Structure formats: C-alpha cells, structure tokens
Amino acid sequence: MNLQEISVSTLSGVGPKRISALESLGIKSIYDLLFYFPFRYEDMEVKSLNDAVDQEKILLKGVVASDPVVAHFGYRKNRLNVRILVENESIMVTFFNQPWLKDKFETGNEVAVYGKWNENHRALTGIKVIGDSHSEGSIDSVYSVNKNIRQKTLVNMIKEAFDKYHQDIISVIPESIIQKYQLMHDEQMVKGMHFPQDENENEAARRSAKFREFFLFECGIQSVKARDNQENDGLVESYNQEFIDQFIDKLPFKPTNAQSRVIKEILDDMQSKHHMNRLLQGDVGSGKTIVAVTAMLASVTAGFQAAIMAPTEILAQQHFDKISSLLTPLKLKVGILTGSQTKKEHDTIAENVAQGRINVVVGTHALIQESVSFKDLGLIVIDEQHRFGVNQRKALRLKGNNPDVLAMTATPIPRTLAITTYGDMDVSRIDELPAGRKPIDTYWIRSQKIEQMYRFVEKELKTGAQAYVVTPLISESEKIDLKNAEVIFDKFNELFAPKYKIGLLHGQMPNDEKEQVMSEFSSHKLDVLVSTTVIEVGVDVPNATLMVIYDANRFGLSQLHQLRGRVGRGQKQSYCILIADPKNDIALERMKILTSTNDGFVLAEEDLKMRGSGDLLGSKQSGLPDFKVGNPIVDFNILETAQQEAEQMFKDADTIEKPENKVLKLFLSVEFEQLNNFD
Ligand code: ADP
Ligand code: MG
C-alpha cells in the first residue's frame, strides 16, 4: 500500500472539516500525517523542586493534600485550585478552565502535574495531569498547529494512523545505507519521532529522520544534475583557441594560475555537448571580470552572442567601459541596455541585439524585459548572482536556445550552501589573489574616537590615495539616509576642501549623475567619495586604498567584507576603518572577526553560523532551503554524509535501477516535482 495515496479521510471522525483543517497544515495523505513531526519536545522527566526555574515548565510529582476547589469568575471562566505535597512542601497548583480535571485529584493519591513554575508564589500553573502510571512516556511531543486544529486532535489522529497503517511504512533509504549508518527503519523512526519512550529512542529517531530528509533532498538535486549531464542538448561552442590565446597575451597582466585554471574549466564546459550551469566563485578582487570577458569572447568566436547581467547601473556601466576597451579593438560590437536609457536608445540597441549586430551585451535587469530578444545567445554571465532572484536568472536563460550559464559570486559559498542551494551547479573557484596584493589592514574604532579616523584619512590623502566613506541604510526612508550621507559629506568638505575634492553618491541621484560622479572618482578628479551602499558591489578603482564604514554594526559580515573589498586592488597597502558601537555580543564578535581575517571564506562560514544558529529569519536570509527536521548548519555532518551517499547513488545511471533501490526510485518519482522545485 502506498501511504502517499491514502487519504486522511480513512481515519475515524475525519470529515470535510478536519480534512480542510489538516490541509491547512499541508497534510493530505496518511503519509503526510505520519511524517508531520513534532517541532519540539518537552522533557517530562519528574524533577525535584530544587531544579525548578521561575517561568519554566516542569513536571512535579507529589501527593494530593486537599480536595480540589473550582471557583468561577468572569463570564464562563473558572479556575481549579489544588494543593499538592511535594518534598514536604505544600504547592498550590492552578488549572484554568478545565474543571473536569477535578476527578483526577483525590486526597492522599500520588499525582504528577506538568506546568509552569512560579518561583515567587511557590506555585504551579498546570498544563496537564500525568497520573502516576503515565504510559505516554517521559517526553512530550509538541506539534505546530493553527487555529483550525488542536494539538490533542492531531495527536489522536497520528496515533490512529500509526496503529492502522504502521506495517505499511516502508523504508525508502536503501538497506545498505541503513546498516552502514545504523539508522532506524522508517516505521521505527516514525514511532520514535511521535511517541518516544525515552530520550535515547527519540535521539536515534531524530538522527535517522534528519539523515532521511537530507538524503532525499540531495537525491533530488543529484538526479536533476545527472539528467542534465546525460542530455546532450547543450550548445556546442567551438571557440577559436588561437584568438583567445592572443587576447590573453595582450592583457596588461598575466592571469593568475587560478584564473587560467577556471578559464579552462569554463571553456571546456562551453565546448561540450552538455549544458553549462556553472558557478564562478572568487573572493572580492580575485579577478572574475577578466574570466567572464574571456568566456564571452570565446562564445563570440564560436558564432554566438554573449550577455552579462549586473545588479546595478553603476556596475553595468563599469563593465561596459571595461569590456568595450578590451573587445572593440578586436572588432567586436559591445552594447549596453539599462533602465535609464530613453526609449529611442533602448529600441535602437535592442534592434541591433535582435539582428545579431551586437556581439556582447552588457546590462542590468533591463536585459530580461520582453522587448529584448537575441539572435543567437550562446552564453549568459550573471555577475554578483546572489543579487538576482531565481526568476530573473531564469528569465535570462529563456532568451536563448538553452544557452550556457556562468553565474559569478564574490560571496564565498560555505559548504552548507554549496551542497544544498547550489548543489545542481558545477563550481569553479578562484582561490588566489593577483600577485603583490597586500592584505587589507582593518581597524575598528568607537564613534567617540572619530577624530582619529579624520587624521588617518588626511594622512592617506597626502600620499595621493583615494578614499571611500560609506554610510549604511539607517532607516526605510531614503530621505533620512540621504541626510545622513549629506551630513558626512559636509563634514568632510569642512575638514578637507578645497585641498581635496569630495564627491557624494546616493541612490536617489539620477543615473547620469551617478555615472558622472563615479567616473570622476575613477579618474581621480575626486579624492574622497562619500556614498550610501550603492557602491557595495563590484566597483573597481585600484587607486582607492582607504575604506571608512560608518555604523558598521548595521551591516552583516559578508556585506562588510564586500565593502572592504573595494580597496586592496592595487599594489599599495590598503586600510579599512570600521566605526561602530556594538550593542551586543554578536555585533562585537563581528567587529573582532573582521579585524582578524581577510579570508572571505572564513567570514562567510561565520556569517552563516551566526545567522543560522536557530533564528528563522536569519536562516531564511541565508538562502538555505527549508528543512523540517534537520538544520543544515547545526547538522552539517549529517548533511554532508547524506550528500555523499546521494552523489554515489547517481554516479552511475544504473545504480538507481537496482532492486534494492526500487522503493527509493519510486519515492523520488512521486516526490520528483516537489524536489524539482527547490531552485
Ligand atoms: P572581482 O573578482 O572582485 O570582480 P575584478 O575582476 O574587478 O575583481 O578585478 C580586480 C582588479 O584586479 C581589477 O583592477 C583587475 O584589472 C585586476 N586584475 C585581475 N586579474 C589580475 C591579475 N592576474 N593580475 C593583476 N591584476 C589583476
Ligand atoms: Mg566583480
């Protein structure tokens, strides 16, 4: 019997109302119900009064000292009071609106009561009476429910479903893996998740459930990847190697070994019959742009068009300038499409793109508008890919006939993310900075010491260096942010003008003004650029060697690392000054980590740990998929093992066809659609 196909309506007393209540929890089948696990457990071991903590829940055992009294108050409200002798102390226990419980208390009988402890009054607000022979075990399962359904009702349904169908719970994990990791079979696991007899059983069940969840998720990813690799419908881009070699020879610098290696990985992939879905990861300043340009050139020499999408206009403009200067001498046509262009400009360029007269197109999300179509798109590069939503990335892919995709990111991908969110992509890593780069010196000061920063800025400016001064989003209102940036801008003018030229850049400026300011800073007409976070990603001005960040505690670690990465791009020693008055330990910890390491990978791991350790909002923002039982950060070891086993399972196309994997295969084919949606 396939429990996924049996409706909850086969349980007693489950009619339309309960069906829709269960549906509101995402439960339709008996399978869904049995695998709707508690979101937490309450320890119901009997505790001594000495261990009772104010306002915490505790299970106390004692003798009923007096008959219970039910008092009514207000409209249909009542309270039941009963005294219980616990360790020779008389404790008052109160239950609200459960008058029927009075039958459970008979003077002189032993009783165990679970409730919330009030230290001041030496009293307990009762939650439930356990009775002396409690068969439910010492652990209480707590389910997440909503207003449509009560805990108790849900528990009873799960109990009935388990009694009725437990012999049909068949393990999906292949037997050899169950043995290898000493996992529970699914039937035993389901029992241990819902009705554990003790902590050990529950612990083992949870470990098994986590493995199961991660393994199935990873199988989904691996099967998608395997299918991608088996299909031979990718574009074959037969590029001109000689042309590429000449191009690289003419660059003003020699590529690092890491750059050469990833260029080869990417070009091989583009030339193969498989569709390329590759992530290029390289820390800020590692030189991803030139890798992307080389790949785009290769695509053009193979007779295709190439496109690069950047998250901001400033960045698109910067790419356009750089790419034009590199590729126009080779007689390639480079075009730019952004949201701020006039309709006429846009239409002209779009027309040239559609006709194939433009070889390389640079743009913002304006590239994915309906009005843009390509003649023959071969390669898409997505810069700072984490800035784009999945749908935007997809939209660009749909502009061609299954073009190759190269997504670039400066945010190092912790292993956790690499094997979940990005599990279907191949990864190329630039793990080396260009020679001669000096690590950036980072200092943290409190705002009361701000004078020190001014002196430092002056010292740097004297050497002919340029500085960024960044202020964060202080509020939702851009007006207030702007004011904040303007105040700093005025202060810097007061201190350093007219000897040094100060510029201001913020999100509310029209785009041509933004470009104007940026290009003045690039060409060193400005010495200091005061800016809101619009410069966070990608901006490349090698002569800038100082980054000052106001209210640094308002940024996340990765973001601070990105900002800091705007300097340290030339041969000169660079500095980063963080101004922050951290208000809690985590914020303080962040400042310390930043001043102690320049390693983006270490920072990304720390960032994820700090955000992912339990708080939901944090892990949502971290880009991790939702898991029900396992926490990919805390349970990383289980995740990694599950990933390796899943990878093994799909390494050879026929492994999944073996008889011992039959249940798994069937399960995946049912779940496939769901698993396929993780992207
Ligand atoms: P990111 O990876 O952060 O996008 P960029 O591509 O902007 O980095 O490169 C950072 C800077 O390093 C640029 O000024 C670029 O010209 C320079 N650069 C890139 N590769 C090398 C190299 N192999 N040697 C020296 N400088 C390089
Ligand atoms: Mg870049």
Descriptive tags:
679 residues; alpha/beta; OB fold (Dihydrolipoamide Acetyltransferase, E2P); Rossmann fold; 3 domains; 7-stranded parallel beta sheet; 6-stranded parallel beta sheet; 21 strands; binds adenosine-5'-diphosphate; binds magnesium ion; DNA-binding; ATP hydrolysis activity; RecG/Mfd
Unreliable runs = 613-621, 674-679
What top-tier CATH class of the largest domain fits best?
A: Alpha Beta
Strand runs, count: 21
The helix fraction, in percent, is 25-40%
List the total number of helices: 22
| Number of separate domains | 3
Bound molecules: adenosine-5'-diphosphate, magnesium ion
Shape: globular
Distance between the termini: 31 Å
- What's the mean pLDDT score? 86
| Structural class assignment | alpha/beta
Strand order of the largest sheet: 11-12-10-13-14-9-15
What kind of sheet is the major sheet?
7 strands, parallel
Q: Please tell me the CATH architecture of the largest domain by its name.
A: 3-Layer(aba) Sandwich
Q: Rounded to an integer, what's the Rg over CA atoms?
A: 31 Å
CATH fold title of the largest domain: Rossmann fold
Beta-strand fraction estimate: 15-25%
What does this structure look like?
The chain is of the alpha/beta class. The protein folds into 3 domains: about 45-130, Nucleic acid-binding proteins (OB fold (Dihydrolipoamide Acetyltransferase, E2P)); about 170-305 and about 375-435 and about 640-679, Rossmann fold (3-Layer(aba) Sandwich); about 440-595, Rossmann fold (3-Layer(aba) Sandwich), CATH 3.40.50.300. It is built from 22 helices and 21 strands. The strands form 4 sheets. The chain has a 7-stranded parallel sheet with strand order 11-12-10-13-14-9-15, with helices on both faces. A 6-stranded parallel sheet has the order 16-21-20-17-19-18, with helices on both faces. The chain has a 5-stranded mixed β-barrel with strand order 2-4-5-7-6. Helix 5 (about 185-195) packs across helix 6 (about 200-230) and helix 6 (about 200-230) crosses helix 21 (about 635-650). It is globular. It is an enzyme of class 5 (isomerase). InterPro entries: ATP-dep_DNA_helicase_RecG (IPR004609), DEAD/DEAH_box_helicase_dom (IPR011545), Helicase_ATP-bd (IPR014001), Helicase_C-like (IPR001650), NA-bd_OB-fold (IPR012340), P-loop_NTPase (IPR027417), RecG/Mfd (IPR047112), RecG_dom3_C (IPR045562). It catalyses: Couples ATP hydrolysis with the unwinding of duplex DNA by translocating in the 3'-5' direction; ATP + H2O = ADP + phosphate + H(+).
